Amino acid sequence: MPKSENVFASLDLAAEPQLRLTELIAALTRNAVDFVIIGGVAAQLHRLPMPATVDLDITPSRSLENLARLAKVFDEIDAALATAGEYGTWFPRHPISNWSQYEMIHLVTKFGLLDLVFAPEGSEDGFNELIRESQEISFGKQIVRVISVDTWERLKLATKRDKDIFHLLLLARHRDERK
Predict the structure, then answer these.
(1) Are 93 and 71 in contact (CB under 8 A)?
(2) Residue 80 near residue 88, CB atoms below 8 Å
(3) Which of 7, 99, 122, 178 is the least crowded, having the fewest Cβ atoms under 10 Å away?
(4) Nearest 10 degrees: CA dihedral of 18, 65, 95, 28?
């Protein structure tokens, strides 16, 4: 079977659950998780001309109450670790101290891939900063907080990853074509 060439290089793409964004966001909002959408889904919600994404990237609040709600969501969505070495590795969700100290966690869930990015590159204060720079956007029956386009650009530029630079070039070309 073909293997991915990206961060999940050892993952069998045929086994990856398809991103079911509506269900994933519903689980988070139903459990009152405080989070901001970043990454590819943020671009899509702003209708930026980006390729489809395979995961949902969020920056959640690190408050203990919020992390407890997030752990409850992990149980509900059957979250497991998505690592370079193994796909769907179980991890102890309780107590939250088992995982809350990490800056980034890649998860596979029954609704698709979910990345928790507590401290995105280009952000000095994570959730607290990004929530101030976000806006509410309707997504189906949900209202979600999404980083602004300016913040999305700043975070993409800060990573210095090839795919993020490519996305910024796509956006620049799109803006030039609209002039």
Answers:
(1) yes
(2) yes
(3) 178
(4) -10
Query: Encoding tokens for residue 161?
Result: 């990853």
Phi, psi of 10 (to 5 degrees): -95, 5
The answer to whether the bond into 17 is cis (omega within 30° of 0) is no
Q: Is 131 helix (H, G, I), strand (E, B) or coil?
A: helix
The one-character DSSP state at 97 is G
Between 64-76 and 21-30, two packed helices, what is the crossing angle to 10 degrees?
140
Q: Which stretch of DSSP H or E encloses residue 152?
A: helix 149-159
Which tens digits make up the pLDDT trace of 121-165? 999 999 999 999 999 999 989 999 999 999 999 999 999 999 999
Token pair for 157: 């530029």
Strand partners, 59: 36
Prediction pTM value: 0.87
Q: How many CB atoms lie under 10 A from the CB of residue 6?
A: 11
What lies within 8 Å, CB to CB, of 66 at 6+ separation is: 33, 34, 60
Q: What is the 3-state secondary structure (H, E, C) of 22-52?
A: HHHHHHHHHCCCCEEEEHHHHHHHCCCCCCC
Structural domains present in the chain: 13-171 (3.30.460.40)
